[in-house]
Design goal:
The structure is a single chain. This protein has 161 residues and is an alpha/beta fold. The protein has a single domain, classed as Nucleoside Triphosphate Pyrophosphohydrolase (Alpha-Beta Complex), CATH 3.90.79.10. The protein has 3 helices and 8 strands, in the order αββββαβββαβ. The strands form 2 sheets. Strands 4-1-6-5-8 form a 5-stranded mixed β-sheet, sandwiched between helices. Strand 2 and strand 3 form a beta hairpin. It is elongated.
């Protein structure tokens, strides 16, 4: 008779593994969203493939990555931007109902960036990149990002949600 590999673990180890998985899977996902402006002042937005709505570029941190590294990587992958200058932290957003996929905690940063020079890396995730002046910003933005870009535009105090 063959035993399943988990059956070879001590009885208490399986309980610990189940408890660890429960905690890991119920933790908020941490990410960054970038309110990015090109030299002429227009905002960089990406059109999401899953919903077709416009959004700030950004995403979740990868293991071992800092917010700054994530910001640079996400702008390159999603918007084809290679030159990034950090300006300020706009806010920390954590309302559980923002993202229907999971509870996300998003740090929003404002940056000055170069013009996009490449296509998005994954066209299954990002359909297009476009630049918008204040008067032509689309609404609503994905994942409740209207207030995020609103805070960046207003240059208000840091938002802590």
């Amino acid at each position: 008779m063959r035993l399943a590999p988990l059956a070879l673990l001590p009885r208490g180890a399986l309980t610990i593994l189940r408890e660890a998985a429960r905690h890991i899977l119920k933790r908020p996902v941490v990410g960054v969203a970038v309110a990015a402006r090109v030299p002429d002042g227009r905002w960089v937005l990406i059109r999401r493939a899953d919903s077709g709505t416009w959004a700030l570029p950004g995403g979740t941190l990868e293991w071992g990555e800092t917010f700054r590294e994530s910001m640079v990587r996400e702008l390159a992958e999603e918007a084809g931007i290679t030159s990034v200058e950090f300006v300020r932290v706009v806010g920390a957003y954590s309302r559980p109902d923002r993202d229907p996929r999971f509870h996300g905690v998003t740090i929003v940063v404002e940056c000055r960036v170069s013009m996009p020079t490449m296509e998005p890396v994954n066209p299954l995730e990002i359909r297009e990149v476009a630049l918008f002046d204040d008067a032509s910003l689309p609404s609503p933005l994905a994942m409740g990002m209207d207030d995020m870009i609103g805070a960046a535009r207003a240059r208000a105090d840091v938002v802590f949600e």
